[in-house]
Design goal:
Blueprint lengths: L14 E8 L4 H15 L3 E8 L3 H7 L3 E4 L11 H14 L3 E5 L1 H14 L3 E5 L8 H13 L2 E4 L2 H10 L7 E3 L23 E5 L8 H13 L5 E5 L5 H11 L5 E5 L5 H5 L3 E4 L8 H9 L3 E4 L4 H4 L7 E3 L4 H13 L1 H16 L3 H13 L4
Parallel strand pairs: 1-2, 1-4, 2-3, 4-5, 5-6, 6-7, 8-9, 8-11, 9-10, 11-12, 12-13
Helix pairs in contact: 3-4, 4-5, 7-8, 7-12, 10-13
Length: 372
């Protein structure tokens, strides 16, 4: 049976329900499964309430997590009264002590359901979510007011929460994400590896992830005679546009869009460098995974990334939306692999100091202090 090397909490009577939009592939979804799995192995009784299914359901099953998939239409980025009612009934069914919401739709719905049954509500704000409309901001402000605790994964996100709902300021804590291992799926989600050198970019294909700047950087590397192959793992509304862009830039043979895949440590270790070109980030899972895998990282110095990896100590950090700087940093990693390996080793050592057990114990300590 899959297990994490974690201890047992002194008080293990808590029943926590984590609420997340779907079991589709995404960083927040993987974080929730890893968090619940680690907490459960430390004695906390964890349940997952999920609007729609997806590939990560297999991972949750392998982790031994109790869960309920409601079979609703996608709730992504929208309010659903059906979702609120489904969560409310589930909370009553399991006898939850704490409800923890993740991602916009689930946070809003879980807050309302928790209030209806009189259970303390916690929300993790995983990103700046700059896509939110005025109506969405009204809803998320109400969600913050209902929350007994708001977990922000970076200082920047904490400040954004306080700006949206100043009355919630005293209930905001900053807890950067840590690497929370999850069991690998039994089904093979692998892909054909291109010849090296290999660049990995794992991101939802949306504006804030700015994969377009990476493509422009690859075009500059090609122009300088540097041959690399880039695998882009992920999907999103910009995919068709980006696939056209690689043709326009003349780098179609350098880039493989493989769609959403559950990345494992084995996958990540097959690459020479992991690139994170985002213009906005919280505490990105791919950085945590690359650190744990000991793979060199090139990333933009945005959001919580500089907290996770220090420039020229554990990674190379560049300004956002700067394809020249990004190309130079990628070339540096590939031209000086020994230096890159030393940075990666330091990053892996740093990652080892932030254990899942310590993270879960800290969060559970906050749970136990919530007002009834």
């Amino acid at each position: 049976m899959w297990r994490l090397p974690v201890g047992v909490l002194a008080d293990s009577s808590l029943r926590v329900v984590h609420v997340v939009d779907s079991f589709e592939i995404g960083g927040a979804q993987k974080h929730v499964i890893g968090l619940a799995a680690a907490a459960q192995q430390m004695g906390v009784r964890c349940h997952l309430a999920v609007a729609t299914g997806g590939p990560f359901q297999e991972v949750a099953v392998r982790a031994g997590l109790s869960h309920r998939v409601f079979g609703l239409p996608s709730v992504r980025r929208r309010y659903s009264t059906r979702y609120v009612e489904a969560i409310r009934k589930y909370l009553e069914h399991v006898g939850a002590d704490v409800v923890h919401g993740h991602i916009f739709a689930s946070a809003v719905a879980a807050a309302e359901a928790a209030q209806a049954v009189g259970v303390p509500f916690v929300v993790t704000q995983h990103s700046l979510a700059r896509w939110r409309t005025e109506r969405d901001l009204v809803r998320i402000a109400q969600t913050y007011r209902r929350a007994a605790l708001i977990v922000a994964v970076s200082d920047e996100i904490a400040e954004a929460v306080r700006a949206i709902e100043p009355t919630a300021s005293q209930r905001v804590i900053v807890m950067p994400n840590v690497f929370l291992p999850t069991p690998d799926p039994l089904s093979d989600s692998g892909f054909r590896l291109p010849p090296g050198p290999r660049v990995l970019c794992a991101a939802r294909l949306v504006a804030e992830k700015d994969v377009g700047t990476l493509l422009a950087a690859l075009a500059r590397l090609a122009g300088a005679g540097r041959g690399v192959r880039c695998v882009v793992v992920g999907d999103g509304p910009q995919r068709a546009e980006l696939e056209k862009e690689v043709i326009a830039l003349g780098v179609a043979r350098m880039v493989d869009f493989v769609g959403p895949i559950i990345l494992t440590q084995r996958h990540i270790r097959a690459f020479d460098v992991v690139v994170v070109p985002s213009v906005s980030e919280g505490s990105p899972l791919i950085v945590l995974e690359a650190r744990a895998a000991g793979v060199p990282i090139v990333a933009t110095a945005v959001g919580g990334i500089p907290f996770l990896i220090r420039n020229r100590v554990e990674a190379l950090l560049v300004p956002p939306q700067d394809p020249d700087a990004l190309a130079t940093a990628i070339a540096d990693v590939l031209s000086f692999p020994d230096q890159a390996a030393r940075r990666a080793a330091r990053a892996r050592g740093h990652a080892a100091q932030t254990s899942p057990a310590a993270y879960v114990a800290k969060l559970t300590g906050h749970y136990t202090q919530l007002p009834a």
